[in-house]
Structures are given as structure tokens and as C-alpha cells.
Amino acid sequence: MSLLRMALLFVRNIFRNQGELALEKLALRQQLAVLQSKIKRPKIRPMDRIFWVWLSKLWSNWRSALLVVQLETVVRWHKQGFKLYWRWKSRAKGLGHPKVEIEIRKLKRRMCRENPSWGAPRIHSELKLLGYDVSETTVGKYMIHGRKPPSQTWRTFLENHLPDTVGIDFFTMPTATFRILFTFVVLRHDQRRIVHFNVTEHPTAEWTAQQMIEAFPDDKAPRFLIRDRDGIYGHEFQTRIKNTGIEEAVCSRRTPWQNPYAERVIGSIKCECLQHVIILNERHLKRILRSYIEYYHHSRTHLSLDRNAPVPRKVEQRGYGKVVAIPMVGGLHHRYRRAA
Fold first, then answer.
1. Who's near 221: CB < 8 A, 6+ residues apart?
2. Over the range 98-107, which residues count as b (16 or more CB within 10 Å of their CB) and which as e?
3. Do 179 and 282 form a contact (C-beta atoms < 8 A)?
4. Measured in Å, how far apart are the chain's first and last C-alpha atoms?
């Protein structure tokens, strides 16, 4: 019986397609190599999976030679390969929206901080007028959203009231004969201008009220007046101020920071001028103050005024000529300009 079977196999092999015979031998040899491994449970490598998926496409009778794994396993491998192939085939070159330039993102956040009441349409319109081509959706994505409703900043609120606000204050200066002189200063907040000053040895409420009348003789009186709780601002002063339509804003006790601009200008006068001279008398002090205030208004630069003077100075280009120094305040300070 065995001889008959061998004869039949021999006849079948003679008439079998030589291509199928070669593929069958290749499949058997590959499985033999896996089984001969020292590992008890053969480990199927990615190359083994690729081999069987490839063989199932080329040979219709590949199932008859499969011994290591089940048929469903090969089918699962084929489906996984199909998914991976089409995932690679249909991959996008650039995922998502195009990246927004860092300059545009910073500008949008800056607009949000400086204009808390603006929405995405307003910011998008501003960017469009500046030549930036972005969508309104992108603008909304990079906006800064606060927890509270939008509100103006304290700086904006104060700057809107600066033209209608003045600060007043006194400071003392000893003379060479040890007398004490009182200097009264009136400062407009909008341009940091000293609109009036005067010196006396015996200040009173009537004298102080008269200084306010001299500082604003016409209809240019401000709406708000910031002062401290000094006793010099007595009943006579308060009545005069009320009759001119000025509303007083009295600082709290021991809080000079509530009248910062007046305190700052007095500090500048003392530090940059009066601490370097010996005052002889009232007339001498007035002359020194006039000289310094002229320098303060027309030459001294201020950080709050964009590094310019209260009376703006023009920018002189390099080609205008050589730089020369002009002494001011008796030589304590200098103004630099280009000589034509």
C-alpha cells in the first residue's frame, strides 16, 4: 500500500505545475526554519508575517502548507497590512491649520492686553489693516480670555483724567541765615508742567488760595485738585476753591504716594538743584527756581513723556552738525544740541 502511495505521489509530482512545487518547497523550508529554533514557542517576526501575506497572494493553495499558525492569523495580518498601507498612502503632508507666525501671535496678545474690551472681529480688522492675512477663527484661538468682564486698566482711567487734574504741595528750604522759606508748587498732571510757584516765609490759607487764583486766572481751572491734609489748606482756601468749581481730592493721612506727581517734581527740584546751592534769601530762591523750571520744561527728559521734555524737543539727525553743550541752571545741567 505504501508503494502504491509513493507511486501516485511520484506521478502527481511529475504532472504538477513546477511553479506551485517551488512555492510549496519554499513554504515548508520557511516553517522548518521557525520550528528548528531553540525557543519552545516559535516567535513570529515581522518578516515572517510579511512572507505569509505575500505567499497568500501568489499561491492559491498556500493553506495546505500552513502549519505554524492558524489561517485566521494570516488573514488578520493581511488586514493589518492593508490598514497600514492605506494609512501611509493617504497621509497628509501638513496636518491641521498652517502655523501662525510668532510675530502675529505676540501682536494679537498685545492687542488683547491693551484693549480688554475688544473682541475677535475688532482685532481681526486691525490685523487686516496692518497687512496680516489671518482668519477670525485663528484670532479667537490666540486671544487672552480673562475670568472677569473686560475693564480698562487703572493707567487708562488715570490718563483720561490727567488733563483735568492738578497736584499742589509745599516744601521748605533753609537760607544762609537759617530762615525757613516755604515754596508752593502747582503741577498739571497731563504734561508734568509747573504752572505756578511762589515763595513766602509766612504761608496762610488766604495766601495759598490767592496762589490758586493766580495759577488759573481765566476759565482754565482744572476739575480736580489733589492735596494732602496740611492745616494750611484752611476754611478760606476751601471756600475759594469751591467757588472756582474745582473739586478737591484730599489724600489720606501719611500717604504721599496718593499725590505722586507733585511729590516727584519736588524731589527732582531738591535733588537736581537746591541740594547743590546755598539759598541767600527769598529773592535768590525765586531766581534759582525760575532757572530750574525753565530747564525742567524745555530741556529735561521724562520717561513718562516718551523720553522727551514737557515742551517737546525735535530729534536732530546726525547730519545737522557737531554736538555742543549749553549750560543751564548755572552750569548744574546742560542741554545738548547740534550746531549747524
1. 244, 245, 246
2. eebeeebeeb
3. no
4. 127
| Cα 304 to Cα 297: distance, rounded to the nearest angstrom | 14
Task: Using alpha carbons only, give the angle 67, 39, 57 rounded to the nearest 5 degrees.
Answer: 35
Q: Which residues of 131-156 are buried (b: 16+ CB within 10 A; e: fewer)?
A: ebebeeebbeebbeeeeeeeeeeeee
Query: Position of cell 492686553?
Result: 113
Please report the beta strands in 108-205, taking only residues with DSSP state E, as ranges in sequence order. Answer: 165-174, 180-188, 193-200
What's the whole-number mean pLDDT along residues 35-54?
Answer: 67
- As given in the structure block, the three cell numbers for residue 1 are 500500500
Distance CA 20, CA 158 (A): 93
C-alpha 277/C-alpha 285 separation (Å) is: 10
Name the β-bridge partners of 328: 333
Query: 108: buried, middle or exposed (CB in 10 Å: 19+, 13-18, 0-12)?
Result: buried
Report the amino acid identity of residue 164: D
CA-to-CA separations, 150 to 45, 123, 127, 145, in angstroms, rounded: 62, 15, 20, 9
CA nearest to 48, candidates 24, 68, 20: 68
Phi/psi at 144 (nearest 5 deg)?
A: -95, 115
Report the pLDDT value the prediction gives residue 1, as an integer from 0 to 100.
Answer: 44
On the 0-12 / 13-18 / 19+ scale of CB atoms within 10 A, 315 is exposed
- Phi, psi dihedrals of residue 182, rounded to the nearest 5°: -105, 130
Q: Which amino acid is at 172?
A: T
- Is 225 in a helix, a strand, or coil? strand
DSSP per position, 194-224: EEEEEEESS--HHHHHHHHHHHS-SS---SE
CA distance 137 to 100: 12
pLDDT band at 321 (very low <50, low <70, confident <90, very high): confident
What one-letter code names the amino acid at 58? L
Burial of 206 (0-12, 13-18, 19+ CB in 10 A): exposed
pLDDT at 37: 59
- Residue 271 half-sphere exposure toward CB, CA atoms < 13 A: 7
